[in-house]
């Protein structure tokens, strides 16, 4: 069945219910992708400056081939012996600190975080969790409690176990050495202990992508990790967004931030769009979790998923896409700074590798967020053929997070387009 755009919008509402979000005032009907390019149903081409899931490019030939070949051979679950999950677990753990040597595969990042919280409980014997107040870690009953801006009204009364700290914000509330953040975490640890819940874990994205990717020097999380360890808690690093080379300096953002997590959770780009998530931890933590609970995930780590995930990791490694992210990201930020010199609506430019963006303000002195203007810019960019988005507490930061195969030429095209849109989009 081929629906018109208005039929698609109406049928989504009828068949999927209300509140199923789309991007843009004029949603895009995408029908094809290749590399960094997307095509809509009218054959119009868009530069994808946003999607991190197709990390090695839309419809990457190596990943497509791995999925097709394994699908044509066998797909089953992990209760049979198979090389696939082991080859992947070995390749993945080889990229990590020696203590992160045991993996568990899921289908989503939400499940991975859900298991990570239960691992913290299994090892510490406590349940108090801390997160930032402007993040997202997933949608299970347990981890949806971590999204302070969108805590579900139904959720089995779990909110007693969750406490929050202000999300770091290098633009409005600088904390150059991470000690303010560490002190805020210490305060919430004390509150958990005082309430009788006890402190089990801090969960953070080490590059704070959902919070608006504040500019922090390398090693910034060290004081926080110390506070967490001194209190006997777990440091859970959610690298669903920041992992697999996104920041361009390291394969993993926790390395950049100078820490080794107790549990590392993964998702989104892990298999280029095939639903794979997972976590890596120490053998002891895995044993503590698995001895208390016979965890099984029907689809997690199946031969097709494992083949897809291995193809993605090898593609990142063999094409040196982390280095590409660094080179293109540096060029992109230089271009953004040129635009900042030209347009005073840009108050701050930040990022690392292929996560970068600009914070838009109505006044550089007061830093008043230009949230409505940012929305108009995103929508105008979509009309010009550029897919990007916004994020941050005030939804006024341009969020640019393309596949890691994004090139310097692609970045030039994007910023030429942004220059035109900033010139032509009225402020009021
Ligand atoms: N953690 C982070 C940091 C995320 O951004 C997301 C998804 N946006 C998730 C976890 C949840 O992943 P999933 O949608 O695969 O459950």
From TrEMBL:
Protein name, entry field: Aminotransferase class III-fold pyridoxal phosphate-dependent enzyme
Classification via Pfam families: Aminotran_3
Cited InterPro entries: Aminotrans_3 (IPR005814), Aminotrans_3_PPA_site (IPR049704), PyrdxlP-dep_Trfase (IPR015424), PyrdxlP-dep_Trfase_major (IPR015421), PyrdxlP-dep_Trfase_small (IPR015422)
GO molecular-function terms, A-Z: pyridoxal phosphate binding; transaminase activity
Recorded coiled-coil stretches: none
Cofactors named for this entry: pyridoxal 5'-phosphate
Alphabetical UniProt keywords: Aminotransferase, Pyridoxal phosphate, Transferase
């Amino acid at each position: 069945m081929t629906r018109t755009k208005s039929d698609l919008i109406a049928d989504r509402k009828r068949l999927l219910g209300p509140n199923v979000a789309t991007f843009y005032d004029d949603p895009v009907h995408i029908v094809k992708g290749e590399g960094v390019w997307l095509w809509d149903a009218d054959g119009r081409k868009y530069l994808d400056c946003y999607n991190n899931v197709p990390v090695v490019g839309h419809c990457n030939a190596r990943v497509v081939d791995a999925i097709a070949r394994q699908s044509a051979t066998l797909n089953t679950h992990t209760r049979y012996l198979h090389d696939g999950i082991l080859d992947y677990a070995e390749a993945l753990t080889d990229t990590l600190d020696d203590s992160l040597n045991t993996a568990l595969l899921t289908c989503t990042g939400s499940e991975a975080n859900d298991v990570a919280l239960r691992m913290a409980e299994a090892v510490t014997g406590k349940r108090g969790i801390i997160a930032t107040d402007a993040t997202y870690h997933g949608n299970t009953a347990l981890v949806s409690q971590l999204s302070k801006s969108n805590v579900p009204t139904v959720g089995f009364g779990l909110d007693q176990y969750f406490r929050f700290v202000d999300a770091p914000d290098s633009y409005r509330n600088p904390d150059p050495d991470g000690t303010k953040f560490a002190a805020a975490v210490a305060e919430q640890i004390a509150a958990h202990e005082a309430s009788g819940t006890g402190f089990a874990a801090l969960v953070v994205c080490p590059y704070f992508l959902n919070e608006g990717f504040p500019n922090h020097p390398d090693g910034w999380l060290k004081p926080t990790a110390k506070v967490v360890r001194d209190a006997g808690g777990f440091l859970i690093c959610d690298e669903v967004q920041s992992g697999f080379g996104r920041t361009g300096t390291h394969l993993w953002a926790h390395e950049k931030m100078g820490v080794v997590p107790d549990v590392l959770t993964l998702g989104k780009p892990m298999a280029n769009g095939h639903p794979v998530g997972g976590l890596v931890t120490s053998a002891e933590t895995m044993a503590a979790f698995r001895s208390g609970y016979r965890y099984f995930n029907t689809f997690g780590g199946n031969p097709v998923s494992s083949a897809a995930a291995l193809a993605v990791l090898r593609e990142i490694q063999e094409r040196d896409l982390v280095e590409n992210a660094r080179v293109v990201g540096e060029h992109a930020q230089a271009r953004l700074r040129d635009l900042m010199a030209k347009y005073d609506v840009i108050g701050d430019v930040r990022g690392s590798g292929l996560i970068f963006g600009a914070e838009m303000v109505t006044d550089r002195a007061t830093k008043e967020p230009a949230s409505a203007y940012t929305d108009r810019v995103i929508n105008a960019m979509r009309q010009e053929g550029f897919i990007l988005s916004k994020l941050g507490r005030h939804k006024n930061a341009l969020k640019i997070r393309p596949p890691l195969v994004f090139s310097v030429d692609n970045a030039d095209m994007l910023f030429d387009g942004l220059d035109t849109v900033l010139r032509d989009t009225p402020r009021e």
